[in-house]
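Re: the 534-residue chain
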Amino acid sequence: MHIDQSQKRAHTSTELTLDDVDLCTSAFIRMHRHPIMALDVGCANILACHVNLFLGTIAPLIPRRPDLKPLVERALKGEVMGNFLLTEVGHGLDILGLETVAEKVEDGFILHTPNSSACKFMPPTMPHPVIPKVAIVFARLMVGKDDRGIHPFLLPTSYPGRMHSRVSAVLLPPRNGTCALDYALTSFDQVKLPPSAFLGADYLSVTDHHALLKQYIRRITLGQICIPMVAVTGIKLTACIGVDYSYRRHVQGTRGDKFPIMSFRTQQLPVLYSVAVAHVLDAWSNNVAQALESRVVEGDVLQGMATIFKTTVCRFTVQSYREVAERLGAQGTFGHNFVSRIEMDMRGLVIAEGDVTTIAIRLFSELLQRKYTLPQCTHEGTLLEKHARGVYNRCAQLLGGLPDGHRDPLFNALVLPQCERGVLALGCSYAYSCALDAGVPRVLLDLFECAAIRMDPAWYTEVEGIGEMERIMREHRAVTAMLPHVQELADGLKIRHVIPVPILSDAAWDAWVESLVHKKEALSHFFGPSPARL
């Protein structure tokens, strides 16, 4: 996927109002669930920065900052593209350690990057040939020698075809196998900012800088919900590709008869798992979208539910992408067939907006310390709910036996490695309950249950007595029941019509090969005849 194509799509694909962004309306959520977001994750990344983080951070400021409205209106039209510069290369998720400085001066601020470890990392800040870019930059506000905490500042970073004279962007090498984007290292050299560049609260009256920073970056929580929705669309596409290719591709037996590779259980397992996971996660996504739009959860509970959603969706989908891609053979290694590319893109999104392991540690630790509680599953007593409760209770018992509680060295050694497992168990339980409420067919629920058991087989063996042979037989029964209906179930994902990959059908393959021939002829005309063979 070419970077110019991703940028063009991003600049022309938003038809949102400021209220859509601010209130997370159905239109905002639909944008993230649109198939193009999975087919072109470069476009999805641009819009994640521009719409959710940049516009989403500015939207609630408009009542007290009406001077920002013209910029917002241009940004909503795609006439200006926004970025959100928080993470520094030397600090990662340790945002309290940020070193970028905004020094208060009489007529504004001076923004400066003091050293190489303070460079802002990843956001696509390279200049666009036509469209200017602006950014919300997080910096440590210094008033004289007093550190007044970390606050957001607004500034232009580039104009059409060129950078701001005191802003530097160094283009990073492309991430292997992904949709290309102009990821960069961004730094500031004594950039003079007017007083209006300050987007924060009254820094003279702030007493809890950490709480204020959490408020500033609240849109990251919404990103932890929206990004996984792209992954869910990706697994729906992957499931359809896997099903169609597995029935299209035939092998010949010793007697000369041909049969589809879907005849083999080794082909059926990853493909059918992907279909089951796609249906269950899609049903859960619908539930999460409704909760987000209706604002039934807020604050720490919203953060917790976002962490569970992102952790579960990312872990299930990345595993399924990899397994299906392998069963596509050599075709699965090419980006134009989608699956290997979405896997690499999603491996990046596992890290984006807070990496899964770190946010899972924070959530599960807080739950174990009973700082707050999360909503109960609508279906208590299911096998997956028992698992979630069992993992939590075991870790809580372990924590209770530590002399120094969560500050005990054994908490780091014994409990921290269990945190993601505990969060994933909660996610499996929530997803299964939502799918049950949504009327997802039993054959899909049974196979999703098998997928969840695969994630933590030791617990199910030890506590529920589901040993290896029993697990295999459960899987066998679920796959056998689902197989006759798999093409119909893939149709039910309602996404096949947008899949552009050449291996989906003979007609698509022939057309794609023909396009390669024309491309070769065009290149030959441009570069001259090919050199003679040795």
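The longest helix spans residues 219-248.
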